[in-house]
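Async update (no meeting this week)

Hi team, since we skipped the sync, here's where things stand on the single-chain job. The sequence we agreed to prioritize is pasted below, unchanged from the tracker. I ran it this morning and attached the output directly underneath so nobody has to dig for it. Comments welcome in thread, and please keep replies under the output.
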Amino acid sequence: MGRFGRLQDVLRSERFRPIPFALVLAVAAAIGARGGVDLAAPTPKAAIARALSAHGIDASAEGVELSTFVVSRRPRSLGSVEVALVRGRSPSDDMHDLYMTFVRRSPEGVVLEVSAPVNLTSSASVDEGAPVVSGPFVAYTTALDGAPKAIHVLDLRGHPAAESADFTSLQKLQSAGTEWQKTGLSQGIVHDVYTLAGDFTEARLAFRGDALDVGLGGGTKVVLDPGSRRVLEGAELLRVSLAEKGRPAGFVPWAVDRVRSVPAFGDENMQILKAVAFTGLEWAEKARTKVTGGPTVTAETPSGLEGLSQVTGGTVTSTRDPEVGFPPAPLEPILKPALPNEGTFVALENDPFITPIPGVPAPFAQTFLRADPNRTGTRIFITMWDARVIALHMEAGTVEPVSATGEAGPGTIARTPEVLRNVVAGFNGGFQAQHGEYGMQANGIMYLPPKPYGATVMELRDGSTAMGSWPGNSEVPDEILSYRQNLTMIVQDDKWNPWNRTWWGGTPPGWHDTIHTTRSGLCLTKEGYFGYFYGVDIATEELGRAMLRARCRYGMHLDMNAGHAGFEFYSMAQGTGFSPLGRPLQADWEYEGQVKDFPDFRFRARRMIRAMGHMNFPRYIRRDERDFFYLTARRVLPGPPLDPGAAAWRVKGLPQHGYPYAIATTTARVEGAGSAIAVLEVDPKAVDPKDGANDDPTTVLALADRRGDAGAPTSPGKTALVLADGRFSLVAREKAQGTPLFTGNDAPTPATRAVVGVRDEDGVLLYAEIARDEPKRADALAGGAALLGRAGASKRVFVANDVAALLGGGLALDGERDPVPHGPVTMRLVRRAMPGGRPYFESTPVVDVSVWRPLQMQRVRYFAKPKPAPSPSASANP
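Output:
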C-alpha cells in the first residue's frame, strides 16, 4: 500500500478521530464553576441574584424562584442541592432569558453556594417572563414587543426512560452526557411549548393544585395539567408542541458538538481543528497520488451503483416515457473517458424499498458523475425525482435548529396514516443554527426568520416545491408553508458561485475554503425536477460542477461531513406487512422494522447507495435531533383499483393535456347490470371549470345535456356537484357557489344514466355511466352507486338528467366511440397546472458580497418590529 496510503487510512480511521475527544474533559469546567455568595444578603433570592451578577447576568430577587425539586440530598450539615430559576439578561441585551442554577443552603436556609448558571432558553427574538414554580414544574411566558406569544412548561424530573427505550447503550450514554452539559441534569429537562393561536395583551400564570391557570384577559383562560401534559381548558387557543428525545448523532459528531459547546473551546477553535485535520488528509492524498499516480479508471471500474439490479429484482431500466418526460435525458460526463453508464439515469422501477405508486412511471432515478480531474475515482451520486409526483416536506429536529422563539421541533414525520402511507424517502437538512442561523419554517411554525439572499427551498401551500434566493427582506409570503435556508446558492443562472462566497462550512470564517469532505446538496433542474447530490471527498466547486451538468437552475449546499449527510428510501406497509423479498436483508444498507409510536405500520428502508455512511440508519423515519427533509407520494391518478372484477384504469391515449394524468377510465361489471358500466375519475387538482360556450384546446372533459328519453321531463336536482379549492364536493343546490357541473338526487329519475360520488380521502370525482340501451337500468344504477361507495365515496347522487360526459369534448368514456348525439356543451373542465417543482423569488438580483454578507452575518434578533407611529407634531417631508 505504501507509506502515504497507510497514513491516509490512519487519518481516515475512527482511531484518529478521538484526538479532539480528549477535549471533552474540559466540559466539566463549564458547569463546575461556582459564583461568589453574599452571606449578608437579606433573602435567599437576593443572594442568588447577586451571585449571578458575577457571571454577567443582570437579575433581581423578584425574578428568582426556588423549586422544591431536590437534585440530591446530603448530610444535614451540608444541606440539600436545590434548583433555582432566574429571569435575567446580559447588560448588553434588552431581552431576558431564563437561567437555572444549583443552590446549596444551610439547614437554616442561608445560601452557601450557587453554581454557574445555565441558560435554558437562549431565545433570540422573544422576552422570557418571570417563572412560576410548583414542585418540579416551572412555567413562564414568552413575549414579543410586550405581547404574550407562548406558555412554556418545564418538568425538572426529566425525560421518562420510555422515550429512549430503543436507544443503544452508547446512545443513552450520549444523551445523558448532552443533557448534563446543557442543564447539569443527566436526565435533562422536559420542555413543552403551548403557543397562543390568537393575539392577547396579557398572560397571567398561577399554579392551582396540580393545574396551571393562564389568564388571557377578558375572562378568557387556558388550563393546563403539566403532569399529564394535557390541555384541560382552552385547547382551541393553543398549538401544542410536546418535547420528546431525539436520537443523538453518531459518536464522532456528538463528541465534536460537545467540545465546541464548551465556552473555553468554542466553535471557532473546533473549525480550526477540523480544517487542520482535513488539510492534513488532503496533503496525504496529494502525496500518495504523486507516488502511486492515483487510481486507475477503466471500463471495469465499479460505478458505485452496483446492487441496484439485485435490489429491484433485475428490472432497473433507463427507459424514458416521452409523454411523461422522466427520467431526465442522460447527462454528458464531465471527465473522459467516461465510466460505463456514467450520466445515464437508472429508473428505480419496482424497488421494494420505495412505497409503490400504482399506475405511474417510476418517479425516482439515479446516476453518478465524476467532477474532479485530480481525483478521478471520486464520484458524485445523484438521486432525481419528479416533483409532479413526489412532494417535499421539512421538519425541525428536537434540538436543531435552535429556535429564535424557544420552540423546539417534533423531530419526526407526522404519525398519521394519511402521511405515513405515502412516505417514500428522507434526507438531511442544512447546517446547525450556530453556523449561520439560516432560516427555517416548518408547517407554518417559524423557528428562524429568513436571511436575505439566502439559498432557500420552500414548500408552498398548494403543494409545490420551490427554490430561489430570498429577497433583501425577511417577510414571508403567505403562500409559503415551510422553508429551509443554507448559505447562498452554489449554482444560479448557469453560473457556479455567482454570489462569490468563499466560506462553505469547511473552515473558520475568513479562511479560503477548498476543503474536500463529504458534502450534500439539493437542486431544482430546468425541467422542474429535484435532485439530491452526495459525494465523498469533494469540494464545493465539484458539487457545483455536477449541478451545472445536471441542468440545475438553482443549487444549494446542504449539510456536510461524514455521518451528517445521508438519503434513505422507504417503503411503508399498513397492517399486513410486506411480500417476502426472496433473499436475506443486506444489513449494511437495508432494514425492515416497525414504526415507533405507530405499530400499525411497518417500513423497509435502504440507503441511497450502499457506501453511504450516514449515522443512525434508518434515521429519518425515527425521531431525530436535527432537521431533515422527507418526501411523500402525491395522490395522483390513476387511483386505487376498483373491484377485483374491474378492468385496470386506463390513462394512455386520453386527452390528458399534460402530466400527471387528469382523468382515468375503466369498466366494471356490477350485480344486476346487463352490460359493463363505464367509470371515470377526474383529479380536481388538474382541471378548472370553464363555460362550455367557447371551445378550448385543453379541454379534458365536456358536459352536455342529452335531454334524456323522448318526452322525459328535466329536473334541476336537489344536490349540486361543484369544484372549488382543488376538490369536488356535493352540496345542497341552493348553497352551491358558481355553476354546478351536475345536479342530482338521492334516487334516479327516468332520464338518469349516471351516478356520481366524491372520494372522501382526496376529493377525486368518480362518475359511473350505464349504456343507453341497458335493459336493467335501475339495477345497474344501484350497482354503480354501490361500486362508487366501495371505491371510497361515502356520498353519491344520481345525476338528474341524461348527461353526456365527453372526453376532450368529443369522445365517449372508452376514449374510442363516437358519443351519442347531444345538445350544446354547458360546462368544460380544462387542464390546469398541478403542483410540482418551480422557481421562486426569480426577481431577486445577485448582489455584491458587500451587500449580502453583512445581512447574513447578523445574529438572529431581528424579527420585524412595527415602526412607531409618527407623533402628531411631526411634520411630513414634502
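Quick observations from my side:
The radius of gyration is 31 Å.
The mean pLDDT is 84.
Reply here if anything looks off.
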